[in-house]
Amino acid sequence: MARGLYKINNRMERLEADGYYLIHNHPTGTAKASNPDIRVTSILDDKVPGFLGHIIINSGTYALIERASNGDYVIENEI
Question: Is the model's pTM score more than 0.85?
Answer without folding.
Answer: no
